[in-house]
Specification:
With 246 residues, this protein is mainly alpha-helical. It is built from 10 helices and no strands. It has one domain. Helix 3 crosses helix 9.
Amino acid sequence: MPELSALAWAALALGAVAVGVSKTALPGVNTLAIALFAAVLPARASTGALLLLLIVGDWFAIWMHRKHARLRALLPLIPALAAGMVLGWIFLGFADDTWTRRVIGAILLLVIAVTLWRRWRAGEDEPRSGRVAAVAYGTLGGFTTMVANAGGPVMTMYFLAARFPVRAFLGTAAWFFAGINLAKLPFSIGLGIIQIPTVLMDLLLIPGVIAGAFLGRMLLGRLDQRTFELVVIVLTIVGALYLLLA
Protein backbone atom coordinates (compact mmCIF):
# COMPACT_ATOMS: atom_id res chain seq x y z
CA MET A 1 0.00 0.00 0.00
CA PRO A 2 1.43 3.43 -0.93
CA GLU A 3 2.38 5.61 2.05
CA LEU A 4 0.33 8.75 1.53
CA SER A 5 -0.65 11.71 3.68
CA ALA A 6 -4.22 12.31 4.80
CA LEU A 7 -4.47 15.16 2.27
CA ALA A 8 -3.31 12.86 -0.53
CA TRP A 9 -5.91 10.25 0.42
CA ALA A 10 -8.58 12.96 0.47
CA ALA A 11 -7.57 14.03 -3.04
CA LEU A 12 -7.73 10.44 -4.28
CA ALA A 13 -11.13 9.95 -2.64
CA LEU A 14 -12.44 13.09 -4.35
CA GLY A 15 -11.03 11.78 -7.63
CA ALA A 16 -12.85 8.47 -7.11
CA VAL A 17 -16.13 10.32 -6.55
CA ALA A 18 -15.46 12.31 -9.74
CA VAL A 19 -15.04 9.02 -11.64
CA GLY A 20 -18.47 7.85 -10.49
CA VAL A 21 -20.16 11.13 -11.37
CA SER A 22 -18.48 11.21 -14.78
CA LYS A 23 -19.72 7.72 -15.64
CA THR A 24 -23.35 8.16 -14.67
CA ALA A 25 -24.07 11.84 -15.35
CA LEU A 26 -21.35 14.26 -16.51
CA PRO A 27 -18.54 12.74 -18.62
CA GLY A 28 -16.26 15.78 -18.46
CA VAL A 29 -15.91 15.53 -14.67
CA ASN A 30 -13.42 12.72 -15.30
CA THR A 31 -10.82 15.41 -16.06
CA LEU A 32 -10.83 16.30 -12.36
CA ALA A 33 -10.02 12.70 -11.46
CA ILE A 34 -7.13 12.60 -13.95
CA ALA A 35 -5.66 15.80 -12.52
CA LEU A 36 -6.00 14.71 -8.87
CA PHE A 37 -4.48 11.26 -9.41
CA ALA A 38 -1.61 12.71 -11.45
CA ALA A 39 -0.92 15.26 -8.70
CA VAL A 40 -0.73 12.63 -5.93
CA LEU A 41 0.78 9.55 -7.59
CA PRO A 42 3.65 8.92 -10.03
CA ALA A 43 2.51 9.07 -13.65
CA ARG A 44 2.49 5.32 -14.34
CA ALA A 45 0.88 4.48 -11.00
CA SER A 46 -1.82 7.11 -11.47
CA THR A 47 -2.72 5.70 -14.89
CA GLY A 48 -3.07 2.15 -13.56
CA ALA A 49 -5.00 3.13 -10.45
CA LEU A 50 -7.41 5.28 -12.41
CA LEU A 51 -7.97 2.57 -15.03
CA LEU A 52 -9.26 0.10 -12.43
CA LEU A 53 -11.63 2.68 -10.97
CA LEU A 54 -12.85 3.63 -14.44
CA ILE A 55 -13.75 -0.01 -15.09
CA VAL A 56 -15.78 -0.10 -11.86
CA GLY A 57 -17.52 3.12 -12.91
CA ASP A 58 -18.19 1.72 -16.39
CA TRP A 59 -20.19 -1.20 -15.00
CA PHE A 60 -22.22 1.03 -12.70
CA ALA A 61 -23.02 3.21 -15.72
CA ILE A 62 -24.06 0.16 -17.74
CA TRP A 63 -26.28 -1.02 -14.90
CA MET A 64 -27.96 2.37 -14.52
CA HIS A 65 -28.39 3.18 -18.23
CA ARG A 66 -28.48 -0.28 -19.86
CA LYS A 67 -32.02 0.11 -21.18
CA HIS A 68 -31.13 3.21 -23.18
CA ALA A 69 -27.92 2.12 -24.94
CA ARG A 70 -27.79 2.17 -28.75
CA LEU A 71 -25.15 -0.51 -29.31
CA ARG A 72 -25.53 -0.57 -33.09
CA ALA A 73 -24.20 2.98 -33.16
CA LEU A 74 -20.83 1.66 -31.96
CA LEU A 75 -20.24 -0.76 -34.85
CA PRO A 76 -19.04 1.86 -37.41
CA LEU A 77 -16.49 3.10 -34.85
CA ILE A 78 -14.57 -0.15 -34.41
CA PRO A 79 -12.35 -0.13 -37.57
CA ALA A 80 -11.56 3.57 -37.21
CA LEU A 81 -10.83 3.13 -33.52
CA ALA A 82 -8.36 0.33 -34.25
CA ALA A 83 -6.63 2.44 -36.92
CA GLY A 84 -6.38 5.37 -34.52
CA MET A 85 -4.78 3.17 -31.87
CA VAL A 86 -2.13 2.04 -34.36
CA LEU A 87 -1.41 5.68 -35.24
CA GLY A 88 -1.14 6.46 -31.55
CA TRP A 89 1.31 3.60 -31.04
CA ILE A 90 3.47 4.97 -33.86
CA PHE A 91 3.26 8.48 -32.43
CA LEU A 92 4.42 7.27 -29.03
CA GLY A 93 7.60 6.01 -30.68
CA PHE A 94 8.98 9.54 -31.05
CA ALA A 95 6.88 11.95 -28.94
CA ASP A 96 7.74 12.86 -25.34
CA ASP A 97 5.18 13.43 -22.56
CA THR A 98 4.99 17.19 -23.02
CA TRP A 99 4.32 17.03 -26.74
CA THR A 100 1.85 14.20 -26.24
CA ARG A 101 -0.25 16.27 -23.81
CA ARG A 102 -0.14 19.33 -26.06
CA VAL A 103 -1.10 17.41 -29.19
CA ILE A 104 -4.04 15.79 -27.41
CA GLY A 105 -5.19 19.13 -26.00
CA ALA A 106 -5.01 20.74 -29.43
CA ILE A 107 -6.93 17.84 -31.01
CA LEU A 108 -9.67 18.11 -28.39
CA LEU A 109 -10.09 21.84 -28.92
CA LEU A 110 -10.27 21.25 -32.69
CA VAL A 111 -12.88 18.52 -32.24
CA ILE A 112 -14.98 20.78 -30.00
CA ALA A 113 -14.72 23.66 -32.48
CA VAL A 114 -15.75 21.47 -35.43
CA THR A 115 -18.65 19.95 -33.48
CA LEU A 116 -19.99 23.34 -32.45
CA TRP A 117 -19.48 24.78 -35.94
CA ARG A 118 -21.44 21.92 -37.54
CA ARG A 119 -24.29 22.40 -35.11
CA TRP A 120 -24.37 26.17 -35.60
CA ARG A 121 -24.28 25.84 -39.39
CA ALA A 122 -26.95 23.18 -39.59
CA GLY A 123 -29.13 24.35 -36.70
CA GLU A 124 -31.58 22.02 -35.03
CA ASP A 125 -32.17 20.06 -38.23
CA GLU A 126 -28.62 18.70 -38.41
CA PRO A 127 -28.68 14.99 -39.35
CA ARG A 128 -27.21 12.53 -36.92
CA SER A 129 -23.52 11.72 -37.35
CA GLY A 130 -22.98 9.33 -40.27
CA ARG A 131 -20.14 7.19 -41.56
CA VAL A 132 -17.73 10.07 -42.19
CA ALA A 133 -18.18 11.36 -38.64
CA ALA A 134 -17.74 7.83 -37.25
CA VAL A 135 -14.44 7.45 -39.11
CA ALA A 136 -13.16 10.87 -38.04
CA TYR A 137 -14.15 10.67 -34.39
CA GLY A 138 -13.26 6.98 -34.13
CA THR A 139 -9.75 7.54 -35.48
CA LEU A 140 -9.14 10.50 -33.19
CA GLY A 141 -10.64 8.60 -30.25
CA GLY A 142 -8.35 5.61 -30.84
CA PHE A 143 -5.33 7.87 -31.21
CA THR A 144 -5.98 9.89 -28.07
CA THR A 145 -6.88 6.91 -25.89
CA MET A 146 -3.66 5.16 -26.93
CA VAL A 147 -1.28 8.02 -26.28
CA ALA A 148 -2.80 9.70 -23.21
CA ASN A 149 -5.91 7.83 -21.97
CA ALA A 150 -7.77 10.87 -23.30
CA GLY A 151 -10.21 9.26 -25.71
CA GLY A 152 -13.15 10.13 -23.49
CA PRO A 153 -13.56 13.78 -24.50
CA VAL A 154 -13.28 12.96 -28.23
CA MET A 155 -15.93 10.26 -28.08
CA THR A 156 -18.08 12.48 -25.87
CA MET A 157 -18.10 14.99 -28.71
CA TYR A 158 -19.07 12.20 -31.14
CA PHE A 159 -22.08 11.19 -29.06
CA LEU A 160 -22.95 14.85 -28.62
CA ALA A 161 -22.71 15.50 -32.37
CA ALA A 162 -24.98 12.50 -32.95
CA ARG A 163 -27.60 14.30 -30.82
CA PHE A 164 -28.27 11.34 -28.57
CA PRO A 165 -30.79 12.01 -25.80
CA VAL A 166 -29.12 12.16 -22.37
CA ARG A 167 -29.87 8.57 -21.35
CA ALA A 168 -28.95 7.12 -24.73
CA PHE A 169 -25.75 9.19 -24.66
CA LEU A 170 -24.73 7.80 -21.27
CA GLY A 171 -25.82 4.21 -21.93
CA THR A 172 -24.04 3.95 -25.28
CA ALA A 173 -20.92 5.65 -23.94
CA ALA A 174 -20.89 3.28 -20.95
CA TRP A 175 -20.67 0.19 -23.16
CA PHE A 176 -18.09 1.85 -25.41
CA PHE A 177 -15.71 2.83 -22.60
CA ALA A 178 -16.21 -0.46 -20.77
CA GLY A 179 -14.90 -2.29 -23.84
CA ILE A 180 -11.99 0.10 -24.32
CA ASN A 181 -10.91 0.03 -20.69
CA LEU A 182 -11.12 -3.75 -20.42
CA ALA A 183 -9.01 -4.04 -23.58
CA LYS A 184 -6.33 -1.89 -21.94
CA LEU A 185 -6.22 -3.97 -18.78
CA PRO A 186 -3.92 -6.84 -19.87
CA PHE A 187 -1.50 -4.38 -21.49
CA SER A 188 -1.35 -2.32 -18.30
CA ILE A 189 -0.69 -5.42 -16.21
CA GLY A 190 1.98 -6.58 -18.64
CA LEU A 191 3.73 -3.20 -18.50
CA GLY A 192 3.73 -3.26 -14.70
CA ILE A 193 1.45 -0.22 -14.50
CA ILE A 194 -1.01 -2.20 -12.37
CA GLN A 195 0.47 -4.08 -9.42
CA ILE A 196 -0.78 -5.53 -6.13
CA PRO A 197 -0.34 -2.24 -4.20
CA THR A 198 -2.41 -0.49 -6.89
CA VAL A 199 -5.23 -2.99 -6.45
CA LEU A 200 -5.14 -2.69 -2.64
CA MET A 201 -5.30 1.11 -2.87
CA ASP A 202 -8.22 0.97 -5.30
CA LEU A 203 -10.16 -1.37 -3.01
CA LEU A 204 -10.23 1.48 -0.49
CA LEU A 205 -11.29 3.98 -3.18
CA ILE A 206 -14.09 1.94 -4.81
CA PRO A 207 -16.71 3.17 -2.28
CA GLY A 208 -15.98 6.68 -3.56
CA VAL A 209 -16.74 5.57 -7.12
CA ILE A 210 -20.00 3.99 -5.97
CA ALA A 211 -20.99 7.12 -4.05
CA GLY A 212 -20.15 9.25 -7.09
CA ALA A 213 -22.22 6.99 -9.34
CA PHE A 214 -25.33 7.46 -7.21
CA LEU A 215 -24.62 11.17 -6.81
CA GLY A 216 -24.45 11.41 -10.60
CA ARG A 217 -27.76 9.58 -10.90
CA MET A 218 -29.32 12.12 -8.56
CA LEU A 219 -27.84 15.05 -10.51
CA LEU A 220 -29.00 13.58 -13.80
CA GLY A 221 -32.63 13.90 -12.76
CA ARG A 222 -32.14 17.67 -12.45
CA LEU A 223 -30.58 18.24 -15.90
CA ASP A 224 -32.52 18.87 -19.10
CA GLN A 225 -31.02 18.09 -22.52
CA ARG A 226 -29.71 21.61 -23.21
CA THR A 227 -28.15 22.02 -19.77
CA PHE A 228 -26.55 18.58 -20.01
CA GLU A 229 -24.97 19.38 -23.38
CA LEU A 230 -23.71 22.78 -22.19
CA VAL A 231 -22.08 21.31 -19.08
CA VAL A 232 -20.46 18.52 -21.10
CA ILE A 233 -19.03 20.99 -23.63
CA VAL A 234 -17.66 23.31 -20.92
CA LEU A 235 -16.05 20.46 -18.97
CA THR A 236 -14.51 19.03 -22.14
CA ILE A 237 -13.01 22.43 -23.01
CA VAL A 238 -11.56 22.65 -19.49
CA GLY A 239 -10.05 19.19 -19.90
CA ALA A 240 -8.53 20.10 -23.26
CA LEU A 241 -7.00 23.28 -21.86
CA TYR A 242 -5.59 21.33 -18.92
CA LEU A 243 -3.81 18.92 -21.25
CA LEU A 244 -2.63 21.74 -23.50
CA LEU A 245 -1.23 23.96 -20.75
CA ALA A 246 -0.17 21.48 -18.04
